[in-house]
Every structure is written in structure tokens, then in C-alpha cells.
Design goal:
The structure holds three protein chains of three kinds. The radius of gyration of chain A is 24 Å and the shape is globular. Chain A contains twelve helices and no strands. Helix content of chain A is 75%, strand content 0%. Chain B is 26% helix and 20% strand. In chain B, strands 1, 7, 8, 9, 10, 11, 12, 16, 17, 18 and 19 form an eleven-stranded mixed β-sheet that branches. A three-stranded antiparallel β-sheet of chain B has the order 4-6-5, covered by helices on one side. The radius of gyration of chain B is 25 Å and the shape is globular. Classes of the chains: A mainly alpha, B alpha+beta, C mainly alpha. Chains A and B meet through helix 2, helix 4, helix 6, helix 10 and helix 11 of A and helix 6, strand 9, helix 7 and helix 13 of B.
């Protein structure tokens, strides 16, 4: 297992380099112009000069090598400098955003708190709600609980957040006036009062997002449990006189986790991709909003860097999922 | 009725409040929401409206335009003119006198050196300055003394108010930006995010594309202003949410540019937490006719170039018929409400430059049909007109925007009534308004028959705006598809008149020429079919006083005068 | 003399009395007796009939603008009301349903087939696992929006030329959604196959000489049916919403072409003033997804021999 993990991690390096190249070429090929948001009153020749100042005059391969150097060498050095107070990256050009003219990584770090508070929290909440629902729905298939759960999760999943988000704002912010409709990213939690404020501004976006996660994961959990509940080993376990709890929660659950683990692992990187629409509706301004505004502004260094970070997470979490398969089901052999 | 009484109440409260306490920072905190978030505080590096507006809270120009479009001095003693001797008789130089005693927010004095530096910063050949257009024709900037600065132009310039005038050309501090010239400009992140300024506020924290925290400038020239001690400038979301936060929930005090359907705004206002204000500038939503053939059958490089005139639209009768079929008043009612006015002019304002052209305002379906008949287009079997076996069928593109899509649907219906078939296409704004020469969907490339968008000009003089329609400014492969003359309109008489405008200094004469040029593009040739003169709608809460919506400069031009209505 | 023992009647072999039944017949019988599946099927058929036959019966055209009748509530002339330009909402729901259901179903099927194929191949053949899963990682990593922009840029004109504007865009959208949404299915199926192929019954089947093809189609696929079914139900909702996002960005159908996703999106702005306008497209999408979900449940149960006949 350890050798397998190490081999996969080593193999991940060329994979990621290749992915970074493909992303770069894709962004090059995509139509778009970083000057699209500059007002039409700015004359075209001025725009051309601005493009040259961004470095767009240089050929593609040079810009790619530059980005690689800045991302893989300068940025880690910056990190080391920050950790130990050294000055390795002194005077080195970092990956600069075209929109902000500031280092991309600084903005990414700045966006982490709200992304973790809202998007990651909603994912955790979603999973915590989904697993019991999925398990119990399968255990009591076609009971009232199962039917209601199915109905709510499916309706919840088919109603997109651009609608459900606005709906909860209209109800809870406009009509009832209980919750703020705009997320304050400058709020720092220091005491009970600010913690309460933070909870109040989090609750709507977290619930809207959690609804989607819950729907997805509970359906996979339910289906997978159903597959396993009728297996022979379950009958054997019951015949052995094991308690119903340990039959379901230990034996069946463990064997049912493989697709669920896959889905959960697939979803983790998308936390860092943010939740574009929900973030926009609640003005959370996390990584999702950062990415989408960068795409709209054709801020290629920003898009390239953020998508590459997400790619790293995707590859990494897929390795974790693969390793977990082996833990859950020792029969799965990799070598 | 209710609106009026509210406004009256507000004015009454104004006079009372200003007497009661006139002290800096007395009114606490104010919240602004811009649904497009500013990405930088240096308008020279971005040029976007949102950045110019946000920066105008901190850095100021020598003079601004007020709500009527008149020039008023800010950091300057007065606006230089030929009459007061500030502008030389031969129109080649302008001399600005700076108000004495102005301090930067860090306490150092503001001098003519800063003004000269600002010009150097923007005119640096490798800087990629977004406002370079403002400094066009500037030969040199001389410091006469600490409080006097002279701008020399390379040729007579009738309107020398490009540099240092208006929100797009504010003065930055020489000391702070000294190391940031040219290619080094983007590396000065701290300076770009929190410039030192002379304006009413200073930046405490700038989070790009998210939120700006500001506080009152301790060294602002008027000791009683600004009335607010702190300000939060939140960005992001969409126009609906911004309107809701001000008008319905009252969480915010000011919302910028509410591009929303009129009935949506009216319903939001009904909640009674705030009011929507509107003002008109020079922004005109228009349909542009393609004078060249965009057919995909033509080889790349010849498609949509002057080599192949448009097979249908080169006939002025067709263009006129298309214009006549449109009911502009209805478009205004559906799309803009009180924030729009039907117009037939490319230059709708200032008043002196606006032509008295109103022929297009009345829809005339029958007249349009007759014109098409006259042009030889007869109704075919499926209700679509044909001529020589060719169908009168047009591709109509615009950017993605709810109001524009409603306009497309309405105009398509009117055109179908006169027997014109229309295929609609909408394109994401980030592609459409870009000019990536590799993309077929940009507006200058114009790979469609007609397209719709809005444009305006900075300041109050339309010269450079109208000069965009000369023959040599047509986008074509040789220019990497860059150029303002996206119709590929070409008329030697027009080019000649533009040159004359550049030589004329007298305001009345200039207005005369500008009107003729406007008419040549609109009612004489129907190359450009103006639809709606679009105003700006912004909302303020009932407790925010002193707001005067300005379309000639930034909306936040008088933020120093804002106060809380108690 | 030894008596030949009289055969015991009960032990005698009798020919089968009932005619032989195919597996699929059993599946169908089971499916029929699943009330949820039946109800789902009936509703889906009703929706499909309504949106495809309806426009021929209903007098209003989906794109016809009657500007005097805008923002109307439900009435006899317009049972679902009208929108901000006075277009009949019922007509738009029907026209929109055609596109949304067609796009949703085809894109979902495409993603499902691609995903299951990649998943089964990767899980079953160890040599393919590495390359196919790295490909999946690559597709998961590509930013969706630029990818779609590139696809539109490269293929729109070519497809328009070959298939005509409407069908060309349809193919483009279906392929775009399908190609960008098969990856989760592939990974889920692969995970299940990895575990399945080590089970005893696969070993047993292999030992009697079943070919790989037989193993996959007869033993592996039926056992990974349930995650595939769940992917299908989630996928159709996804496809309908993604289509609206594409059209909204100007990458999809022309702007006057209604679809459920677009109707829902447009109506959200009017949520407070005309709440009934968001109701219909929301209902359309939810009903379609729910009915497919129940049909998926029924099919899953029907395919499980342990439940069958219960």
C-alpha cells in the first residue's frame, strides 16, 4: 500500500505538469481579451499599449516557461521566506494578476477565510446530513421517511442556487429582516457577539450549498446501501447473532462506502473552486468569485494559477480515494 | 407624490443637519455597494469605470465636471480659459494655478511637481497607461513654481482639458510613485492599492474585487469634511442584489448603476427604504449597420472588409426602413423607464452639441414597407422579402444582458412585420467587448449584419468621439481588427469636416460642425441607428444626504459633502 | 423376482409447465409492479406529450410578442400568464420543455455512456487504469468556461454549416455538456468495479471460461447499475441547468429561444413581483427529474435478482 501511494505521488508530478500545459494552451486558445472591461472611450491604440505592458507581446512558450518559473520556484521561495524570515525570493518577479497588478497568491490567501467558512462548512454540513439520511432511507426503503427524503433532496437538487439563493434572501432578509443579505468579509470573529454575526451571515449561503451536497451524497449512499443490504454476508452476520446496529453500521456501511468516498473526494477540490453562483448571490467573494471574475476579465495568470491549484487538489484527493478503497475493501489489490 | 414629500423632507433635514454639527467624522459610518468590484485603486492602470469611481474618493484631479457638465476647480484655483489668460491665445498651452495650502493625506504639501510627475507616469512609453488618451498631444509639462504648472501641446488644441481634468486623470503623489514608472508600474502593489491622495478619504485596507475600507482623510482641505469618519465600499454580486440591499433591506446606503427593468426598481422603491436617482449623460444605445459583407463564405481576411460591400445594407433605403420600423418610446418603457429617453442622435448632450433630429421617434411600419418595396425587395411566399433570389435575412448580435435580449426580441418582431427575417445572437460581454483578433465574436470584428451596444464619451466635448468614424479608423486585418469605426463608414466629406473641427476653437462653430457630423452618421445615412439615450440610475437610502448624481464625472465626485440625515 | 420399483410420482421429472421467461421479461414485470416507477414513467410520458404535441394545438407562438398584454397573471387566454414582453408563458414552457428535455436526456445519456465505459474499462483492465484515470483527472481539472468557449469557437461555424443553425447548436451543446460531465460517473463506476472484480462470483464466472466481454456485460454492469442510475438522475438536472448557463453566456441557443433553465433564470429577477413566473419552469424541471429518479429506482429494483419477485 505504501509503495503504491508513493508510486502514485511520484506519477502525479508529470501528470500535473502536463495538466498545467493543457490548461495554459486552452486559455491561450480561448477567445477573450484582458481589455474587454476597459470602457470603449479608451482608444484602441492605448489598449494595445496596455496589452504590451501586460506582457502579451511575448510568444506563448516564453510566457508559459515564465509562469512555470514563477509558480514552481519563486512562489515556494516566497513561502519559505514568509515561514523563516529569509530573503530567497528578494527581487524575483512573482505571478502577477493582470487585473490587480498584485501577486496572485496574496489574493488567493486573502480569499481563504470566507471560502473555508462558507463553502467548506457547507460541504461538511452537507455530508453530515446526507450520510444518516442515505443510510436510514436505504434501511427503511419506501418508508415515509425514505419517500419524503427522496422528494426533498431531488427537488432541492433540481432547483438551481441562482433561484434558491434569491428565494431565501427574499424570505429571510427582505420579508422577515432576520438575516443580512450581504456577507461582510471584513468581519473578524473575536467574541460571542461577532461569532453570532458570523453565524447569521453564514447560515443562508451554507444551507443553500449544503442542499446540493446533501442531495447528491445521500442518493449515492442510499443506492449503495441498498445494493449491500441484500447480500449474503448480511444474512450471515445476522445469523451469527450480531446486533442490528453492528450489522448495518459496521458491515454494510463499510462495504457501501466506496462510491460515497469517490463522490466526497471528487467534491473536495470543488470547495476550493468555490461556489460561483452562490458566492455571487450572497456577495461572499470567495475563491469562486475570484475565479469567475478572472475568467470574465481574461486575467490569464490568475485563472491559470487558481485552476492549477484546483488541479493539484483533484489529483491529490483522487489518490486519497484510491488508497481508501484498499483500506475499506482489502480485496482490492493494486500491485 | 410620496417621492416629492420625501425629497422635501430630505432637503429640510439637510439645512437643519448642516447647522447642527459641521465637524469631520461626526456622521459615523457609510456603506456603499458596487455590484462590479474595483480591482485596483489606480485608474491609470485599469481604466474601468469601477476603478475610476473608487479611486476618486482618494485621489483628485485639478478640476472636475459638475452635474451640469460645467467645469469647476478642485485642486486648482480656477479653470484656465483664454479669457482669464490660463490658455494661451494660440491654443498650444494651458497654465494651471494650484490652490495654496493643500496637503497630501500623509501631511506633505501638494505641489506642481506632483502634477508634472503624474503626466510623466502616464506618458511613459512602457507603462501601458489606460488614460493615455487624456494626455494625447501633450508635448511637455513644465513646473513654473510650486503652485503653477504649464502644459504645452504639440499643436493648437481647442479643448485643452484632457490632462488633470475629470475622474480619469487624477493627480498621484510623486514621492509615492517615484519608483513605479513604466514597466515597474505593476510591481508597486502597495501604492496601487492604497494611493496617498488629497481626496476626502484614505484607504485603510484594499481587498481586490471584494471590499475597500476607508476612513476620513485627516488632512483634507476643508476641516469640516468629510462628514463620515469611515466608509465601507463593498463590491460584487449583481445589480438586483445591490438595489435590494439599499432599497429593500436598508443594509447599504448607496448602490451604483442599477441596470434593472423599470418595474423591478419601482417595486423595490415601494419598500420605502431609499430612492432611485437618475441622470443623463452621453451614453447612447444604438444599432450599428455593417457596411461590409460578413458572409462566412468569404475567405478569412476579406470577410467584413471594405473589399466586399454589404449585399443588403449598402442600400440606404433598407437601413432607413429598419430604423423606421422601431418604436423607440416602447423600448424605453420596457427597458429603462425613467432612466432612458428615445433619441435619434449619436451625441445627445451637452445641449449645445445635440442636433434637433427627432424624425425617427415615430414608428412607421407602412412607410418602412413602402421603402423596401421601392428598393426592390418584394414579399416572398413565407412572408420574407426577397430580391434576385436573395432573402432579406439579417444576423443581429449583441452582448448578454437581460434588457438587450428583450430589445432583440422586440426589434425582431417589428422587423418581421416589415418582412425582414432576423437571427439573434448574444455573446458574453467579456468576449464581445474584447478585441481578441482570434475571436469571431468581438464587436469590432463585426461578423454579423447589425449589432447593438452602447457607447459614450468622456467629458463634454465630442470631438474625439466623432473622429472615430473616419475612413482610416475602420477595423480590418491590417490593424489587427482594432479601430473605432466599426461600421466601416467612409465618407471623404466627413473626414474633411473632422479636420475642420480640430482647427475650430469657437464653441458655437464647434457645435455647428458636431451637429452636422452627428446628422451625417444618423439621419442622413442611417449607418448608426440610435435607440435610447441611457441615463444612469443609482440608489441611495433615505438617510444619506448630499448625493448629487453626476454623469459627467464620477458618481462619487462630491462624497466629501455626503452626510447622514438624522 | 424383483419388482421394479414404482417411480415416485413426486420425484418424476415433468416438463416445465410455464413457457420459458427471458430475463428482460422478469425485469419488466418487476418494473411494472413498482408503483413509483410506474407513476414516474406516466408523468414523464405526459410531460413529453405535452411539450411536443402541445405547441401544435396551442394558438400562441412562444416568441410572439403582444406588448399590450405584458406581465399578466393567469387568465383563460393565458393560463400561465405572460412575461415582461407579453409572450405567453404556457407556449414558452412547452417550447422550452422540448429543448430542455431533449438536451437533458441526450447529454445525460452521452455522459453516462462515456462515464460508464471509461469507468468499467479502467476498473476492469489494470493496464488501462492509469492512463484512463489520468485522463479523467485532466478533464476534471480543465476550467469549464474557457473550455466551452474554445469548443464554440472551433466548432460552431463548422456545425452550423453541416447541420443548420439549430441542429448544429443542439449537437454542440449536448456534446459540450456530455464531454464535461462524464468524469464523476467514471470514477464512481471504476471504484465499484475495482471492488466487484475481486468478488467470488467473478472468479467463478471466469473459471468457467466466461470471456471478458461476457464478464463485463453479464456480471459487472448489472452490479454497478445503482450508482449509474443515481448519476443519471442527478445528471439530467445538471444538464438542464448547465444548458441555461450556456445560453446565458451566449454559448447556447439564440436569446429568443426559450428553455426551462432560461425561463427560470429570467424569472428570478421578478421573484418578488410575479412569483408565479418562477413556479412553472421550476415545476417542470423538478417533475422531470423526480420522475426519472423514480424510474431509476424501479429499474434498479427490477435488475436486482434478489429483490425480484418479492
Amino acid at each position: 500500500m505504501l509503495t503504491y501511494t508513493i508510486r502514485r505521488l511520484v506519477l502525479a508530478i508529470p501528470t500535473l505538469l502536463f495538466i498545467s500545459l493543457v490548461i495554459f494552451l486552452l486559455l491561450e486558445l480561448a477567445p477573450g481579451d484582458p481589455m474587454a472591461q476597459v470602457p470603449l472611450t479608451v482608444p484602441p491604440d492605448v489598449k494595445e499599449k496596455m496589452r504590451l505592458a501586460l506582457g502579451l507581446g511575448e510568444p506563448t512558450h516564453i510566457r508559459f516557461v515564465k509562469w512555470m518559473w514563477q509558480f514552481f520556484v519563486v512562489e515556494p521561495m516566497m513561502f519559505i521566506d514568509w515561514l523563516f524570515g529569509t530573503a530567497l525570493a528578494e527581487g524575483q518577479q512573482r505571478v502577477l494578476s493582470w487585473q490587480f497588478r498584485s501577486p496572485v497568491m496574496d489574493v488567493v490567501v486573502q480569499r481563504m477565510p470566507q471560502t473555508l467558512w462558507v463553502v467548506a462548512m457547507s460541504y461538511v454540513v452537507g455530508i453530515l446530513i446526507a450520510l444518516p439520511i442515505g443510510i436510514y432511507s436505504a434501511y427503511r426503503q419506501y418508508s415515509v421517511f425514505d419517500q419524503t427524503g427522496t422528494f426533498i433532496t431531488m427537488v432541492g437538487y433540481s432547483v438551481p442556487p441562482f433561484f434558491s439563493g434569491v428565494l431565501v434572501i427574499v424570505i429571510f432578509s427582505v420579508q422577515l429582516g432576520w438575516l443580512p443579505s450581504i456577507y461582510d468579509t471584513t468581519l473578524v470573529v473575536v467574541d460571542w457577539q461577532t461569532f453570532k454575526l458570523q453565524l447569521m451571515q453564514m447560515v443562508m449561503p451554507v444551507m443553500v450549498l449544503a442542499l446540493q451536497t446533501t442531495a447528491q451524497i445521500s442518493r449515492f449512499m442510499r443506492a449503495s446501501m441498498l445494493d449491500n443490504l441484500n447480500q449474503d454476508y448480511v444474512r450471515t452476520a445476522r445469523a451469527k447473532g450480531l446486533s442490528e446496529w453492528s450489522v448495518v453500521m459496521v458491515h454494510v456501511l463499510r462495504n457501501s462506502m466506496i462510491p460515497v468516498i469517490t463522490v466526497i473526494a471528487l467534491g473536495v477540490p470543488s470547495i476550493f473552486g468555490g461556489a460561483i453562483i452562490t458566492e455571487q448571490i450572497f456577495k461572499v467573494n470567495g475563491l469562486g468569485q475570484l475565479l469567475i471574475t478572472a475568467i470574465q476579465a481574461n486575467d490569464l495568470p490568475m485563472v491559470q494559477t487558481v485552476t492549477f491549484i484546483i488541479a493539484v487538489l483533484i489529483v491529490f484527493f483522487n489518490i486519497i480515494a484510491d488508497v481508501l478503497y484498499g483500506v475499506l475493501d482489502p480485496r482490492i489489490r493494486y500491485d | 407624490m410620496t417621492l416629492k414629500s420625501l425629497l422635501l423632507g430630505a432637503t429640510a433635514a439637510t439645512s437643519l443637519a448642516s447647522v447642527a454639527m459641521a465637524e469631520r467624522g461626526a456622521d459615523g459610518h457609510v456603506n456603499l455597494i458596487y455590484w462590479q468590484a474595483p480591482s485596483i485603486m489606480n485608474p491609470y492602470l485599469s481604466g474601468g469605470t469601477k476603478e475610476v469611481e473608487a479611486a476618486s474618493l482618494v485621489i483628485e484631479p485639478l478640476g472636475r465636471y459638475n452635474t451640469k457638465g460645467e467645469m469647476i476647480p478642485y485642486l486648482a484655483e480656477e479653470i484656465p480659459t483664454v479669457e482669464n489668460g490660463g490658455v494661451s491665445e494660440d491654443l498650444t498651452s494651458i497654465t494651471w494655478k494650484i490652490k495654496p495650502g493643500i496637503l497630501w493625506s500623509d501631511g506633505t504639501p501638494f505641489t506642481a511637481t506632483d502634477v508634472k510627475f503624474t503626466a510623466e507616469y502616464c506618458m511613459h512609453p512602457e507603462g501601458g497607461c489606460a488614460q493615455l488618451g487624456k494626455y494625447e498631444g501633450v508635448e511637455s509639462v513644465e513646473v513654473i513654481d510650486d503652485l503653477t504648472v504649464k502644459v504645452n501641446f504639440s499643436q493648437p488644441t481647442p479643448v485643452p482639458y484632457g490632462p488633470f481634468m475629470g475622474g480619469q486623470a487624477p493627480i498621484i503623489q510623486a514621492a509615492q510613485f517615484a519608483e513605479c514608472l513604466g514597466p515597474k508600474a505593476p510591481e508597486c502593489t502597495d501604492a496601487n492599492f492604497s494611493p496617498i491622495g488629497t481626496g476626502p478619504f484614505t484607504v485603510d485596507e484594499f481587498r481586490p474585487n471584494d471590499v475597500i475600507s476607508l476612513s476620513a482623510n485627516p488632512n483634507y482641505r476643508d476641516p469640516a469634511k468629510p462628514r463620515f469618519a469611515t466608509m465601507t465600499f463593498k463590491g460584487g454580486g449583481d445589480a438586483t442584489a445591490a438595489g435590494r440591499a439599499v432599497l429593500e433591506t436598508g443594509e447599504f446606503d448607496y448602490a451604483w448603476n442599477l441596470q434593472l427593468a423599470p418595474d423591478v426598481i419601482a417595486n423595490m422603491e415601494a419598500a420605502g427604504k431609499g430612492v432611485a436617482m437618475s441622470a443623463f449623460g452621453t451614453l447612447v444605445e444604438r444599432i450599428e449597420m455593417n457596411m461590409t459583407d460578413p458572409s462566412p463564405d468569404l475567405p478569412e481576411g476579406e470577410r467584413a472588409t471594405a473589399k466586399h460591400p454589404h449585399p443588403i445594407l449598402t442600400d440606404i433605403r433598407v437601413r432607413q426602413a429598419l430604423s423606421m420600423a422601431i418604436d423607440r418610446e416602447l423600448l424605453v418603457e420596457v427597458g429603462y423607464g425613467k432612466a432612458g429617453r428615445a433619441t435619434c442622435n449619436l451625441v445627445p448632450a451637452p445641449e449645445i452639441f445635440a442636433s434637433d433630429n427627432t424624425d425617427c421617434l415615430v414608428q412607421d411600419i407602412e412607410g418602412a414597407k413602402a421603402l423596401l418595396e421601392e428598393a426592390g425587395w418584394t414579399v416572398g411566399g413565407d412572408g420574407i422579402r426577397e430580391k434576385d433570389g436573395k432573402k432579406l435575412s439579417l444576423l443581429y448580435q449583441t452582448s448578454t444582458n437581460a434588457v438587450r435580449q428583450d430589445f432583440q426580441a422586440l426589434i425582431k418582431q417589428w422587423w418581421s412585420e416589415i418582412g425582414v427575417e432576423t437571427e439573434l445572437r448574444n455573446i458574453s460581454a467579456s468576449v464581445f467587448f474584447g478585441s481578441d483578433p482570434g475571436s469571431p465574436d468581438t464587436f469590432p470584428k463585426f461578423y454579423s449584419d447589425v449589432e447593438m451596444y452602447a457607447n459614450n464619451f468622456d467629458g463634454t466635448d465630442p470631438q474625439s468621439y466623432l473622429a472615430g468614424y473616419t475612413c482610416n479608423k475602420a477595423p480590418r486585418p491590417e490593424t489587427q481588427w482594432q479601430g473605432e469605426n466599426i461600421n466601416r463608414f467612409c465618407d471623404p466629406a466627413y473626414d474633411e469636416l473632422i479636420k475642420e473641427l480640430g482647427r475650430t476653437a469657437e464653441l458655437d462653430k464647434r457645435a455647428e460642425i458636431a451637429k452636422t457630423l452627428n446628422d451625417m452618421l444618423t439621419k442622413d445615412s442611417y449607418t448608426i441607428v440610435p435607440l435610447v439615450d441611457r441615463g444612469r440610475v443609482s440608489a441611495r437610502s433615505n438617510t444619506l444626504g448630499g448625493v448629487e448624481l453626476n454623469t459627467w464625472d464620477t458618481e462619487l465626485w462630491n462624497a466629501a459633502d455626503w452626510f447622514r440625515i438624522k | 423376482m424383483t419388482e421394479t420399483p414404482k417411480p415416485i410420482a413426486a420425484l418424476a421429472d415433468t416438463g416445465p409447465t410455464a413457457p420459458p421467461r427471458s430475463q428482460w421479461r422478469d425485469v419488466w414485470d418487476q418494473f411494472k409492479s413498482h408503483r413509483g416507477a410506474l407513476a414516474g414513467g406516466v408523468i414523464l410520458v405526459l410531460i413529453i406529450v405535452a411539450v411536443f404535441i402541445g405547441p401544435h394545438v396551442w394558438p400562441y407562438d412562444a416568441t410572439f410578442i403582444d406588448i399590450r398584454a405584458r406581465n399578466q397573471g393567469p387568465s383563460w387566454a393565458h393560463p400561465f400568464g405572460t412575461d415582461q414582453l407579453g409572450r405567453d408563458t404556457l407556449a414558452r414552457m412547452m417550447a422550452g420543455g422540448q429543448t430542455s428535455i431533449a438536451v437533458g436526456l441526450t447529454a445525460m445519456l452521452l455522459a453516462l455512456v462515456l462515464g460508464s465505459l471509461v469507468g468499467v474499462l479502467a476498473g476492469f483492465f489494470r493496464r488501462l487504469d492509469g492512463p484512463l484515470m489520468r485522463l479523467t483527472d485532466l478533464f476534471l481539472s480543465l476550467p469549464l468556461l474557457p473550455l466551452l468557449l474554445v469548443m464554440v469557437l472551433l466548432f460552431r461555424e463548422a456545425l452550423n454549416g453541416t447541420f443548420g443553425p439549430e441542429r448544429g447548436i443542439f449537437i454542440l451543446i449536448v456534446v459540450a455538456i456530455g464531454v464535461t460531465s462524464w468524469m464523476p460517473t467514471a470514477r464512481i463506476v471504476r471504484g465499484d468495479v475495482l471492488a466487484l472484480k475481486e468478488r467470488e462470483f467473478i472468479l467463478a464466472a471466469r473459471s468457467i471460461g466466461t470471456t471478458n466481454f461476457g464478464l463485463i456485460t453479464r456480471h459487472i454492469l448489472p452490479n454497478v447499475m445503482s450508482p449509474i442510475m443515481v448519476s443519471a438522475t442527478l445528471g439530467i438536472a445538471n444538464a438542464i441547468i448547465t444548458e441555461s448557463a450556456l445560453s446565458f453566456l451566449g454559448l447556447g441557443f439564440p436569446p429568443d429561444f426559450p428553455t426551462w433553465g432560461r425561463l427560470l433564470n429570467d424569472a428570478t429577477q421578478y421573484l418578488q413581483d410575479y412569483p408565479e413566473r418562477v413556479f412553472w419552469p421550476g415545476l417542470g424541471i423538478s417533475l422531470t427529474v423526480l420522475s426519472i429518479n423514480y424510474m431509476g429506482d424501479g429499474l434498479r429494483d427490477a435488475l436486482d435478482p434478489r429483490i425480484r419477485g418479492r
